[in-house]
Design brief:
This protein is α+β, with helices and mostly antiparallel strands. It has 4 domains: about 120 residues, Udp-n-acetylmuramoylalanyl-d-glutamate--2,6- Diaminopimelate Ligase, Chain: A, domain 1 (3-Layer(aba) Sandwich), CATH 3.40.1390.20; about 120 residues, Beta-Lactamase (2-Layer Sandwich), CATH 3.30.450; about 150 residues, Alpha-Beta Plaits (2-Layer Sandwich); about 90 residues. About 45% of the residues lie in helices and about 15% in strands. The chain contains 19 helices and 14 strands. Strands 1-5-4-3-2 form a 5-stranded mixed sheet. A 5-stranded antiparallel sheet has the order 7-6-10-9-8.
């Protein structure tokens, strides 16, 4: 960062010649020096605005410890960067009362063993500050141009957040009003613990009206708005090792927050759904380096994992309905915690976090009833096995997807489906696009289908009724409303066309598979 800190000023030759020694506030030497102010007034606070490095010979300082403490309190309250006292004129050493007062207020106190020309100090530091301000202006123009370009090309929120992280070198998190970390990014490899207990930690930091440091961890926070109302905020986290936030950090965060506010005005900002979908897809394909990383990301979006049963649900629907948006509105009202997002154009994913002692079946039933009432009977709800660890979710989600793939129009009489519901029709439906299955159907039934098409007959229905009745001719004949004699005649015609023996159990099984496969094919 281009701005000078107290530590930087102390290293300058013009001040180093005075043999500076830090007597208090050692941990605050990273404060930014906005200006240098020379004063011998006993009440200088009325002439200060904050960020000044105050130089004094100590001549006006009172002897009364109470008044000396009040002097320090004035400086600390206005927010000066530090106090530099030149020894030799008033003091031979720093008064213990002054040191104690500065330590109590954590105000940097520097004593100079040798005299220096304050005018040279101010000229040197002010020149450097003006250069730094010019550099900041040039830097601000570059940052503004970058975020303007991202805004004009309707960049995704991940790009805005990553740009802020790259420019600042710090982790940056975009969160919504309920403290869910929607997007986060860092400039390089960082400790995954950035998101540890995120909602709880985030609630300890207030949101200022504009970018400012907030909370016990010293986060830099800027609000993100939408049409005049608060949508969420952008948070920059300090590095574990390094200087505190300076003006450039604040400028970058403000520019990024403004760009995100504009993006919400001009785009289609389903950012929460995007975040949920991203985590669900990462779990489905297990793109995480560890269970801890997966846990932190899921919990940062409000999904409790420890001590819960995690139940994956896959929902297939028409491509013109917004199931994810509907569930995002309805589930919180029912008290359910879940990740909700689109897995593909016609498939929605849901990861429920349920108490381990609770039953998942009633939840799945209520969910399916609601979806059918809202979107129609064609909605398919497939439920995977409940698991207790996030790294087991991948297998469970895959099983739910396999179930959803197997549910065709003839199998949708159930409200929801699990793997144990899959029978021969569901298996063949999931294989309906397999060329080998298609060839098998054609080899077994092709001549019969052609005969029905040519003569307008319904021998295929006769065969289906016979096979469904497990070879009981009387029951099958009654089902198709034919006399036994007429039914027997049709069976002989079928045997002749297909070259098969319907009295053979093995051949009936082969035909049953072919008829079922043909029935589930589009």
């Amino acid at each position: 960062m281009p701005f000078l800190t107290v530590a930087d000023v102390l290293r300058l030759p013009v001040l180093a010649a005075g043999l500076p020694r830090v007597a208090a506030g050692e941990g605050q030497l990273g404060r930014t020096v906005r200006w240098v102010h020379v004063t011998e007034l006993l009440d200088p606070a009325s002439f200060l605005e904050g960020g000044e490095l105050v130089l004094t010979t100590g001549m006006p300082h009172p002897s009364d410890p109470t008044q000396l403490r009040a002097y320090v309190d004035q400086l600390a309250d206005v927010g000066v960067a530090g106090l530099v006292v030149e020894l030799g004129r008033r003091y031979q050493q720093a008064p213990p009362e002054l040191v104690s007062a500065c330590r109590e207020r954590d105000l940097p106190l520097v004593v100079l063993a040798r005299g220096v020309r304050f005018i040279e100090v101010t000229q040197t530091v002010h020149a450097l500050i003006l250069d730094a301000q010019g550099e900041l202006l040039r830097r601000a123009q570059h940052v503004q141009e970058l975020f303007t370009q991202l805004t004009l090309r309707r960049a995704e929120p991940e790009e805005f957040v990553q740009a802020a992280a790259d420019l600042s070198g710090c982790p940056v998190v975009l969160e919504n009003l309920i403290h869910h970390a929607v997007v986060w990014a860092a400039a390089g490899p960082v400790d995954g613990q950035v998101l540890e207990a995120w909602p709880r930690r985030s609630r300890t930091a207030e949101t200022p009206e504009r970018a400012a440091v907030s909370g016990p961890e010293g986060w830099l926070v800027a609000p993100v708005e939408e049409r005049g109302s608060r949508w969420g905020r952008l948070v920059m986290l300090p590095l574990a090792v390094g200087p505190p936030f300076g003006p450039e950090h604040t400028m970058i965060l403000e520019q990024a927050a403004t760009a995100l506010t504009l993006a919400r005005l001009t785009g289609h900002p389903g950012w929460d759904r995007r975040a949920h979908s991203s985590v669900l897809l990462d779990l489905l394909h297990w793109r995480y380096r560890s269970r801890t990383e997966a846990r932190l990301r899921a919990e940062a979006l409000g999904l409790p994992t420890t001590g819960h049963r995690l139940v994956p649900v896959v929902i297939d629907h028409a491509d013109d309905v917004s199931v994810a948006d509907h569930l995002a509105k309805e589930l919180p009202a029912s008290g359910l915690k879940a990740l909700i997002g689109d897995l593909s154009e016609r498939r929605c994913g849901l990861l429920l976090a349920l108490a381990r002692a609770s039953a998942w079946q009633p939840v799945a039933e209520r969910l399916a009833r609601d979806l059918r009432a809202t979107f129609g009977e064609d909605v398919v709800v497939a439920v995977g096995p409940g698991v207790t660890e996030l790294d087991q979710v991948t297998r469970s989600f895959r099983e739910a997807e396999e179930v959803a793939d197997a549910i065709g129009p003839t199998s949708r009489h159930r409200l929801f489906h699990v793997s144990s519901d899959l029978g021969l029709p569901e298996l063949l439906y999931s294989l309906r696009d397999d060329v080998r299955v298609q060839k098998y159907v054609e080899q077994r039934l092709g001549r019969l289908v052609q005969h029905d098409a040519r003569h307008g007959s319904d021998l295929l229905d006769t065969l289906r009724a016979y096979l469904d009745a497990a070879g009981n001719k009387s029951i099958a004949a009654k089902h198709v409303n034919l006399s036994r004699q007429a039914f027997y005649q049709r069976l002989r015609t079928i045997e002749r066309l297909l070259g098969t023996d319907l009295e053979s159990g093995a051949q009936r099984t082969q035909l049953h598979v072919a008829v079922t496969a043909l029935q589930v094919m589009p």
